[in-house]
Amino acid sequence: MLNRIYIVVGLFAILVLAAAFIVPRFVQWGDxxxxxxxxxxxxxxxxxxxxxxIGFSLLPTPRLEFSDVIVGDAESPVASVAEVEAExxxxxxxxxxxxxxxxxxxxPVVDLVIDENGLFSSGVDIAGAGSGVALGHATIENxxxxxxxxxxxxxxxxxxxxGELRLSSFTGPFQFQGVAEHDGARYELRFNSGAADALxxxxxxxxxxxxxxxxxxxxDGTLAAGMAPKFDGTLLVRQAPPLAERADDIRGDLLLESxxxxxxxxxxxxxxxxxxxxxxxxxxLTGAASVQLGVRRDFDAVISGGVFSLPxxxxxxxxxxxxxxxxxxxxxxxxxxLPPMPGRLGIDLAEMGLRGFALRDLRVEANTDGATWTIxxxxxRMPGETELRFSGTLSNDAGNLGLQGDFSMxxxxxxxxAQLWRRPREDNPLFNTxxxxxxxxxxxxxxxxxxxGRASFAGQTHGLELRLGFGAEPRLDxxxxxxxxxxxxxxxxxxxxxxxGGDNRFAVSFPDGSFSVTAQSIDIxxxxxRDLVAEAxxxxxxxxxxxxxxxxxxxxxxxxxxxxxxxxxxxxxxxxGQVGIAAADAPGLVALHEMLGVPYGWQxxxxxxxxxxxxxxxxxxxxxxxxxxxxxxxxxxADFDFRAxxxxxxxxxxxxxxxxxxSLEADDQAAVLxxxxxxxxxxxxxxxxxxxxxxxxxxxxxxxxxxxxxxQGSQSIGYFGRFDIAANGALSGEGTLDxxxxxxxxxxxxxxxxxxxxxxxDASAALRFDGARSLALSDISGVSxxxxxxxxxxxxxxxxxxxxxxxxxxxxxxxxxxxxxxxGGDALLGxxxxxxxxxxxxxxxxxxxxxxxxxxxxEITANGVQRLGKTGFTFSWxxxxxxxxxxxxQVGGGTLGxxxxxCCAGSLAERSISGRATLAGVDLAAIVPPPVAAGLSGxxxxxxxxxxxxxxxxxxxxxxTGEGNFAIADFAARGLSTSVFPAIAGFEDxxxxxxxxxxxxxxxxxxxxxxxxxxxxxxxxxxxxxxxxANLIVEGAGGRLAxxxxxxxxxLGLDGTFVLTPRDYVDPTGLVETDSARILARISGTLPVPxxxxxxxxxxxxxxxxxxxxxVERLEVLRxxxxxxxxxAAEERNRLIEEQRRRAAEEEAQRLEQERLLQxxxxxxxxxxxxxxxxxxxxxxxxxTRPDQPLQLLPPSN
Length: 1198
Known about the structure:
Elements: H1 2-22, H2 33-44, E1 48-50, E2 54-57, E3 63-72, E4 77-88, H3 90-94, E5 98-106, E6 109-114, E7 120-121, E8 133-149, E9 154-167, E10 174-182, E11 185-193, E12 201-210, E13 215-224, E14 230-239, E15 254-263, E16 266-275, E17 285-292, E18 298-309, H4 325-332, E19 343-353, E20 358-368, E21 372-382, E22 386-397, E23 400-411, H5 414-418, E24 435-444, E25 447-457, E26 460-469, E27 475-484, H6 487-496, H7 504-509, E28 512-524, E29 527-538, E30 542-553, E31 556-566, E32 571-581, H8 587-596, H9 600-606, E33 612-620, E34 627-635, E35 638-646, E36 658-666, H10 669-675, E37 690-699, E38 703-712, E39 715-725, E40 731-743, H11 745-750, E41 759-770, E42 774-784, E43 787-798, E44 801-814, H12 815-823, E45 850-862, E46 865-868, E47 871-877, E48 881-891, E49 894-903, E50 911-923, H13 930-935, E51 936-950, H14 953-958, E52 961-974, H15 980-985, H16 995-1006, E53 1010-1023, E54 1026-1035, E55 1039-1048, E56 1053-1062, E57 1079-1085, E58 1090-1095, H17 1097-1162
Parallel strand pairs: 5-8, 6-8, 18-19, 27-28, 44-45
Antiparallel strand pairs: 1-3, 2-3, 3-4, 4-5, 4-6, 6-7, 8-9, 9-10, 10-11, 11-12, 12-13, 13-14, 14-15, 15-16, 16-17, 17-18, 19-20, 20-21, 21-22, 22-23, 23-24, 24-25, 25-26, 26-27, 28-29, 29-30, 30-31, 31-32, 32-33, 33-34, 34-35, 35-36, 36-37, 37-38, 38-39, 39-40, 40-41, 41-42, 42-43, 43-44, ...
């Protein structure tokens, strides 16, 4: 039973629900149109007409749909809605309380009107109406608002309004959030309102934002609704900066904060604060503005503030690659805002920073009629105590700023002002310099100009016309008329102008332009240029000088027409003219070298090539891009012709093919060589015409091939090979050098060995050079006289001086040639005696190089005779000295070591010659003159150091000082035999022989042999030009040689005495005694022709005295010997007598004994017979001279 009840209830519920869904669809709701219109009219306070279909459904929620709804009069409706779709809360709907839970208004349009009296009318009265209607969620789709101001006959339209609307009642509070479009731009909207109070005032908050975020407006305040609505509140306007591509470009929003009062007849913005960059809190502007609305609209605004500056540039920008900041600013200044109403604007700023410069104390008084701005007065101050004034008009010229008016600028310190466009110098010539400029300014489109300009500078008034293009065709055109400026005034003027050459911003700012400069006198590069005229036009592709002339610029004269095609960095120059150079020391020439960047080495080489008078033509080649430069005229004392064929023109001269042909001829060889820095003396012997020629072709990338030659008559120096030019102008190359000279002294001076005399030669070598830094001669092969030579020589520049090194090998060298190389050819002149009197100081200048050349020779000769064998030495020189070092030569079976040098180069006439020499195991005969070698022999080991000063070699010898020592092994002195002493000892009858005969006998004995010694060792000194060998003692075989010797060097004069005495010899005869036996050898004459005289008188006298002494001694000895013999004979006789007696006694005793024994045996012995004694003989002993015999003084001969 219960189940049946549930079934019945369920069926009933289903029927009720089905009826709620289905029945409303069969109801004709149009029949209820009047009731719905009346209900809506009551809510809005205005007549509502529903002209379209009406539909209603109850479930699941009550929904009402109708279309084509208008509010107000059908002819001029206040609002219209194309479609309306509303949903209500079911339970409230059943209670007749219409709570709209969802409302969709499609294409609603609201028309608002401000009448001629400024009163607002909408045709809708919602004050207190519709308290029974609430919108929980309303959607507006594609709506619109039209506001018509009948005073100005203007219509404001906002379309495509879509959004969400919520309201509790038509009296508030309510909220709208959505989007709208106006004038093609889309905006986001947000509007909130509280409930209106009893006076109809409601608190409102609104927000508007451009869809892309470009700007937003926020307004908060109180809105008084009614016919004269009024809003009082605050305004916040935020404008976003352009999107930044890099982090450094990020800028803050522009922010405007102010209180605002808005009514239908006036907008008052009082006390606004403008932040151009929200991130830069310190930069803000303040002011106030009032805008009158209605039929007669205008405004009055005042802007003031402290420091206002534009945002800084990107820190990573390269200023040198961008235009001047002023030029960039001209292109960035927007057109002045022209409000659609007249008005007045006053500006008072403490400082306005414009990136590159700032305007201080800016005051502007301006008025506008809605079409242009009229600036009654604008003043500002700039750096350098500069006062700026302008009056004129500003306009919007097709979206660009237009300006025209009178301008004046007066500066007390131009040095500070000029820092705005050029970097200051430490010694700024503009320091504390006043100046002024006035004229008429014009800015139209992309052109800025100054006309009728008058510049007051340096006590003179100069004319100036300028036109600056800064748009699509940036350029600068100027006309300048200058009076007479001295160096200081010109420097000040140049310091005032933009740095066109050193600042790349000039070329970037003005790629095109022209100038016309006329000056009575102006300083250029420190020199006055008189009657200067320079007229030219430039572009990125060409610079054309229609005239460039000056009657005198530092000794240079110029008249030319030029065309520089291409661009300033790589110009293609064509033109012609004439250049005159008054003198070699013309100041303009030095300045020209600096401006053209002529390498210093080239400047030195060309320093003496002037004066000159040259005509030049620089023209394009007949075919192709090439160019040809020709020069012809006089260079100093020489005729000069030059032709340069550039395959791709002057701009590509550094890389393209180039052919150079040049020739120079001069009759005065020494003068032209000095012109080009090749020495003050002649390079070639003779007086023929000197001819120089050059021919090269190639390019800087792959180098040049060609030849260069310098010749005179049959002599020449030529190079054939490769040339390379470095970026700094240094030449390098590799090729073959051929030299044929009759006298190489000039060539030696060319490489820095001034004063050295070298013989002529014919040679060739492989040459490699790298500017003035290095040079190498390899595989040298040549002939000098009948001697061949070869080797390698290299040069490296160490510091300021070139340094030469290398090795040479020759078949033979001549001593005279070595002397000329060491002392100079002039030093060997004037040979009157032993040494030449020629000057050692052939050159007063210091040598400009240094070097060490190792030299080897198979032999050293003198007058064709070999003096030294295999020889090696180093020929060295430096600025102060020149010498032969570490000489080692084979001579006489030994070695000779020698170091000799000449010092010191300078202005004094005297030179110092010093050195040292060593000998080791040298045969004496190999190093002394033949006469000396004929008398002395041995092997010498010696050491010597010496030094002398003088104007010539003879003077040096007269002042020579030094010291040395020697040791002569196997020493022998011919004709000085020590056997003379035994010979003398054998002389007979000395007392009866004449002294001359004795001297002859001694001389013959002396010459019979040699004085020999194992070693002769001694030391000597040199002082005052004399070498002194003192106290020489030679211990020889059988004799001792002692003495002293002086050698006067300037004439090689000899003066000395040696004494020969016996050694280890005892004369058995006693005639020769060591103390008195002295043979004197007196030496005189000269070293080449010595004179030796033996002084034997002392020896003769000594032996004569000794012979006499010996005779006396002999006689005494004979007497004593005779007495002794007699005594001995007597003693012998006595001894014999005694002996006979003793024998007799012994015999007697023996006999007696025998007899006794016999008697004993016989008992009676017989008596002995006594012996018979012979008589005593007292005659003479053998060897004793008898008185009756003759006396023998000399020993018997065999």
